[in-house]
Write a structure and sequence with these properties.
heterodimer, A: about 160 residues, alpha+beta, three-stranded antiparallel β-sheet, 3 strands, elongated, B: about 100 residues, Arc Repressor Mutant, subunit A, 4 helices, about 50% helix
């Protein structure tokens, strides 16, 4: 059955009484069932018997609330879904293995802090992505090219010093 | 043997000489002092300085705005302070030493 936290969230949504679209996902990501229910009234009437039947049929034990979207404004409520991470954070996490291990944690942390600051200032998404892409290129450049340069000609590296 | 330093090395060492700072703070300091440097370049320099024993680092706390990643703080070592002082001395007396010329 759905856990208590999930039921509380759902209860909060139903009580809010707004026009909304709710996407639910049950079970493991690749094997689960995605259900879309429109309007809180339908959720109230159909959700519990329907989802209970699905859980029994598929032998699933968990229910995830994927997305709640107000139909009019189109705004997503990430606090309800429980996923506080932005898309850029998820993107950065997925590309983190491209970086050398010694750079990874501090670079990703600093870059995520820059992203957080820009999001707090309500900077446009395209600008944030551009900044992330720029820093990504520079880190890859330094991690690879400089390392190779020092490997092939260590004397050149010392010439740059005063 | 005294370690040779670049201008960027000196600026970074000066930045971490007063406070323990992490990458983004150092970058902000440098940008405020008119040195355009990107994060990637900064880490490259910091890691080299650490290898040479001029700075040392330790891991700080993780925070949600950093996606749960920890901060890595840098501070100058005694050897780093000496290297900065020596470099500043050589800047202030450019024609001394082997370059001295007598008639």
């Amino acid at each position: 059955m759905p856990d208590q936290i999930f039921l509380d969230k759902l209860d909060r949504l139903i009580n809010a009484g707004q026009d909304m679209k709710i996407a639910l996902h049950t079970g493991v990501k690749s094997k689960g069932v995605v259900i879309r229910i429109f309007a809180p009234l339908l959720v109230e009437l159909l959700f519990f018997p329907f989802i209970s039947m699905l859980l029994m049929l598929h032998g699933l034990t968990t229910v995830y609330l994927l997305k709640v979207r107000e139909l009019k404004s189109g705004k997503e409520d990430s606090s309800i879904t429980g996923s506080r991470e932005s898309k850029i954070f998820r993107l950065l996490r997925s590309i983190r293995f491209f970086f050398p291990k010694k750079y990874r944690e501090e670079w990703l942390g600093d870059l995520m802090e820059i992203v957080s600051m820009m999001e707090a200032e309500h900077q446009p998404k395209w600008l944030i992505y551009t900044v992330v892409f720029g820093h990504f290129c520079i880190v890859v450049y330094h991690a690879s090219l400089f390392k190779l340069g020092e490997f092939f000609s260590p004397a050149d590296a010392s010439k740059k010093r005063i | 043997m005294m370690t040779a330093l670049t201008i960027n090395d000196l600026k970074i060492l000066s930045s971490v000489s007063t406070n323990h700072q992490y990458g983004l703070e150092i970058l902000t300091d440098l940008q405020e002092s008119g040195t355009p440097l990107l994060l990637g370049s900064l880490y490259h320099v910091l890691h080299r300085l650490e290898r040479e024993g001029l700075v040392e680092s330790y891991w700080g706390e993780a925070s949600p705005e950093r996606g749960g990643h920890r901060r890595r703080y840098y501070k100058i070592t005694a050897q780093g302070s000496l290297a900065v002082s020596a470099q500043q001395m050589s800047f202030s007396t450019p024609w001394s030493g082997s370059f001295a010329y007598s008639f």
